[in-house]
Amino acid sequence: MTPFCSCSAVPLFIGFVESGVPLGVTFSFLIASPMVNEIAIILLWGMLGWQITALYIISGLIIAIIAGIIIGKLKLEGEVESYVYEMIEKIKAAEKAGITLEEEKQTPKERLLSSRDYTFDLLKKIGPYVVIAIGIGAIIHGYAPADFLIKYAGPGNPLAVPIAVLIGVPLYSNAAGIIPLVAVFIEKGIPIGTALAFMMAVTALSLPEMIILRKVLKPKLLAIFIGILAVSITSIGYLFNAIIYV
Fold it and tell me: Is the pTM higher than 0.90?
């Protein structure tokens, strides 16, 4: 229910990992937060009806849960950049030595100051990547004509769903920004599965998000994350198209 875009979910993702939340669980959040939230639900319901909205919510949650389970089972904690786990190691070392951490002795005011310092430190690490990533997404979004998807992923093309996913990856938007465009695509004859696969790719598998995540994840884990999401979104797109045309 958190109304975040993919890029703004990354700092929370980092915070969860540093706090010791299992890696698979954090990835489930990273996928579900931008893809399925109250903004997407309200807009989809108003534009496309409750049936399509329900299918979208269920499929989005299934993708997030299954992806999280798979990544958790693969035991890929070593594929996260070392600085992310510094806090966990600090806590483990303190517990082993029977030492109470300074953070646990802090007053509310000291905790606020500590949180401020942590925020600035995190911004220094990933802030430039956020700016670069959003800039790239904005440039591509501005130069991609509205009929681009209609031309290359229109009805009758058996490869329309993976093409829609590939077109959506370089773009950057949240649910509120992309749903009106999806509604236009559907009105112009794009199959619902293809249009929603495009939406999922933009919100949960965007190039800007991958640029930011590279600061946190090593290439192997990033590639696994992209692969699982791409296959899942494409499968959901084909499933939606099959349901609509049966």
Answer: no
